[in-house]
Amino acid sequence: MKPIGYWLNRTDKALTGHMNSMLAEFGLTRLAWQVLNVVADDPRATDTRILAVLAANADADALADAVETVLAGDWAARPEPGRLALTADGRARLAQVAERVDAFRERSAAGITDEEYRIAVTVLERMTHNLESGAGH
């Protein structure tokens, strides 16, 4: 059996690769889609908030590029410096993307029960907490 790190890396690459392919027709990447979700969840989202929420997903330069992607694609606008808000068109298109993402999630979780999914997430959360809190030192 391969170690968990191997499967974490392969899973993340598979998720990113498939999502990027699926989202390409919308002019998005997985990371840009994640930025849009932060903005959708917080109508007063700031660049600082986006960086904080998505820090585990990418570095600051990649996140800045993703922000530029959503601005250039008219998904979001800057109602004031340092802040993002979805445009009306961006909100409508994000609803279309959500349908595709739901189908993608179903495909990626095929054959996995809700309980298995919860267990996997719980184990990963616990491992992360153990390592980030310094447990075991």
Relevant terms:
67% helix, mainly alpha, single chain, 137 residues
Blueprint of the fold:
Elements: H1 4-23, H2 30-41, H3 47-53, H4 60-72, E1 76-77, E2 85-86, H5 88-108, H6 114-132
Antiparallel strand pairs: 1-2
Helix pairs in contact: 1-5, 2-4
Write structural notes for this entry:
The protein has about 140 residues and is mainly α. The chain has a single domain (about 5-130), classed as Winged helix-like DNA-binding domain superfamily/Winged helix DNA-binding domain (Arc Repressor Mutant, subunit A, Orthogonal Bundle), CATH 1.10.10.10. About 65% of the residues lie in helices and about 5% in strands. Helix 1 (about 5-25) crosses helix 5 and helix 2 packs across helix 4.
